[in-house]
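Dear colleague,

Thank you for sharing your sequence with our group. We've completed the structure prediction you requested, and as agreed, I am returning the results in plain text so they can be pasted directly into your records. Please verify that the sequence below matches your submission; if there's any discrepancy, let me know and we will rerun it promptly.
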Amino acid sequence: MFVRLTGLAFAALIAFVVYLIGQRIAVRQQHARDLARNEADVWRKAIRVIGHEINNSLAPVTSLLHSAKRMAAQVATPPRLVPALDMIEERAHHLRTFLDGYARLARLPAPVKATVEWQPFLAELAALYPFEIESASLSVPGHFDRAQVQQVLINLLKNATEAGGPADQVRLKIEVNGELVISVLDRGTGMKPEHLARVGEPFFTTKRSGSGIGLHLCREIALAHGGAFELVPRAGGGISANLRLPL
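Please find the predicted structure tokens below.
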């Protein structure tokens, strides 16, 4: 009898320790998500201020540029002047477009969550970027902002298609295990560890013509849903881009 009671007490102690460890992990995860949300709020405010100041300077520059081009058309000018003005105008337009993208990101609306049936949702994505379903838990509908999550997956599928791996190796995986995890997998060239650590930072990109908006938007949408976003190297090469959302 004593041995049995001792065994039960030991089992109860083990269960209690496991419970405490689980609680501590959950608290740490929540703390990390709270920090990420606070960081995102700071970035949004900074982007709004920076965008406002740059736009205030761009407006008179653009106006003066148009005046200069009109004057150049009316008088004899050095042959390199007009191409130079065209280049200035093109770069000013690029900068304004770049800032507009971040301004929209800074005004990202709160997600409107609703029930999402998987088959039509995935069919719409496949019409834009082909992929194979690696494994999927499709029996239970999703519950998230359809438009926002669709935008995340469009960004990730585009990146996977351009990652340098075989097109037929782009996969999409859906798992439900305490949370909803939607993963886009590729067999591309992957990313350096120092780049992975900066994923989701505003303005950071490894692409020559990139703006740094795409993955930052993915992170923002994940955080707005109370979830998380991560890029993880795959064994054998490539990246697993994981969108984690609460059920």
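Summary note from our side: The domain at 114-245 is CATH 3.30.565.10 (Heat Shock Protein 90).

Kind regards,
the structure core
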